[in-house]
Amino acid sequence: MKPALTCDFLGLPLRNPIVLASGILGTSADVLERVARAGAGAVTAKSCGPAPRAGHPNPVAVDWGHGLLNAIGLTNPGAEEEARMLAEARTRLEPLDVALIASIFAGTVAEFGDVARIIAEAHPHLIEVNISCPNVADEFGTPFAATCESAAAVTEAVKCNVGDIPISVKLAPNVPNIGRIAAAAVEAGADAITAVNTMPGMLIDAEAGRPVLSNRTGGVSGPALKPIALRCVYEIARAVRVPIIGTGGVTTGRDAAEMLMAGATAVGVGSAVWTRGPEALGDIAAELAAFMAQEGYQTLNDLQGIVLRL
Amino acid sequence: MHQTFTITEIRTENYRTKTFIFDKPLPDAQPGQYVMAWLPDVGEKPFSIAGANPLALMVVAVGPFSEALHRLDVDDRVWVRGPLGQGFTLRGRHHLLVGGGYGVAPLLFLARTSLTDGHTVDVCIGARTGEDVLLAGAFGSTDSTDFNRLAEKKPVSSVQSVDKLSITTEDGTLGERGLVTQAVEAAIAARRPDCVYACGPVPMLTALAQQCQAHNLPHQFSWEAHLRCGLGICGSCELNAQTRQVANIPAGWLVCKDGPVRIMNHES
User: Fold this and answer.
1) The domain containing residue A170 runs over which residues?
2) H helices of A147-189, where?
3) pLDDT at residue B153 above 70?
């Protein structure tokens, strides 16, 4: 029997668990539709904040051989324009049976609430709360994902502004106890957790004697992030009972299986788009199905969280 | 990651354009691909590959970054990542190359590649005014001695000779007066190409796309957009809907990764 990739995410049926991660493409209804047609189960838009931002100057991203380092700098058109884009994207994705996830960020708790209210008007299926971008500390200070208190404060502010739209809080990997942060977010109203954002990192060009990125530091993603992400998802799954979008270094269907085994319900894919194109999402879903068939797993439930039960 | 390249020669092409020739090849580069050139503390910008063995980049001084490049001397270094993106893929044996302004840079690389294979090449160059016509000498040289001498070391050298070179300027200061599309119409009438290859400003390309569609000609155009990551992830380089529609380019097409060359090889 062919294994089933369908999954239930907070009551939302997904045709497969592969989700376009926030920050990769996701800048327009056109590219979101393209990734949806390429086989994603859900797509996440790039994070938007209260006001338009151009982002950082180049270089903003490099492939360093084991993944990417990027500091795009939260380029976005502002919440009002983003809501129009999301409404258009929602219409386009509807017939494709692909869920739309919005992503929001802000510099203060109050602004998070404001952005959430505007974005909720576009009726995305889920709103992801990005409290963990590592590349804007100069402007916004320490990410809200760094402490239980700030993570909970943002979660509450968002939750009371979005009506019945579920929210997923996106956590940072560079905290001493990610399970506690997840628990604080869930207690404050998070319906799901997305883990993880990129890992803060830095590359220096030795001949130049300079950091490679204009922002000096950036976020590590791709294969180098996978073991970090797997461990974070595992710790979160042990701490809370909400669904997790496990994200970080997933490049193949086998990687996706590992993420599900760590306790994820859905699997985010980002940097693999560089190496495999937007088709990566559908291809990874197909590879996951092939892996399940090979190993005798009938449904995602059969492999989901199996390392938690050891 | 970036690799360092050292400048070995700088050629002045016109009042605002220089070609930089570097100390080593850029492996696996195809005509139409580009590189990101980085000057630490200044910035990073995309440039078409004008030659790959050794690497050559033609730089028009149009802003702070290209002006900084123009201030460099022989023995200075430039940091390069690439080759990036999708380049031209030769189709058939009769090629028509169309360059607008500084869009000629990747076409010289393409012409040299196609002539090496013994194909025929017609070239139409268009520019606003005579002094903006670039590399006409390199395309137009029929002096094989000259080519051989230059070919030893210099990448942006004359091609063995194109079959026909037409130059068009909007003010008539060099070549025919008018738009390059007129020269293209004449070139197609004289010898129907198997494929039309072009690089230049967006208005030129959209006009040319309509022309190729009308003639039912396969075509490969290199498009310009605001490139940032160069990796197909940041989403900054989508073409606007109107351009896409005229040129028959699908929605969500990313110039930096799917392009810059859009290959339309099937006759419509």
Assistant:
1) 7-309
2) 148-159, 178-187
3) no
Tell me the domain boundaries of chain B.
3-84, 94-264
Residues forming beta bridges with residue B78, ordered by sequence position:
B5
- Which amino acid is it at A58? N
pLDDT at B5 over 90: yes
Residue A138 pLDDT: 74
Contact by Cβ (8 Å): B196, B222: no
Which CATH number covers residue A104? Answer: 3.20.20.70
Cβ–Cβ gap B233/A68 under 8 Å: yes
- What's the pTM value of the predicted model, to 2 decimals? 0.92
**Domains in chain A, number:** 1
- Closest CA–CA distance from residue B252 to any residue of chain A (Å): 4
As given in the structure block, the two tokens for residue A17 are 């668990």
Q: What is the pLDDT of residue A133?
A: 85
Q: What is the ipTM of this complex?
A: 0.92
CATH architecture group of domain B3-84: Beta Barrel (2.40)
> For residue B215, what is the DSSP state?
T
Candidates B233, B245, B258: best to mutate against A (most CBs of A within 10 A) is B233
- Tally DSSP H helices, then E strands, for chain B: 7, 14
CB of B239 within 8 Å of a chain A CB? The answer is no
Whether the ω angle into residue B203 lies within 30 degrees of 0, i.e. cis, is: no
Instruction: Please report, in angstroms and rounded to a whole number, the separation of the first and last CA atoms in chain A.
Output: 27
Half-sphere CA count of A157, side-chain side, radius 13 A: 22
Any idea which architecture B94-264 has in CATH? 3-Layer(aba) Sandwich (3.40)
